[in-house]
Amino acid sequence: MMLPKPKDRMLETDIIARVRQLLSQLETGDVIGARSSISMLNEVRENSLFKDLGKLTRELHETLKSINIGSGDQHMPSVQVRLQAVIKVTEDAANITMDGIEATIPISNALATEARILHEKWDRLGRHEMSPEEFRALYPSMLEFMKSVEKSAASIHDKLEQVLVAQNYQDLTGQAIKKVMDVVTDLEKRLVHLVALTAEAGSTVESADGKSIEVKAAASDDAVLSAEEQTKKEFVNHVVSGQDEVDDLLSSLGF
Amino acid sequence: MKILIVDDFSTMRRIVKNLLRDLGFNNTSEADDGATALPMLMSGNFDFLVTDWNMPNMKGIDLLRAVRADEKLKNMPVLMVTAEAKREQIIEAANAGVNGYVVKPFTAETLKGKIEKIFERIDAGKQKQS
Question: pTM to 2 decimals?
Answer without folding.
Answer: 0.67
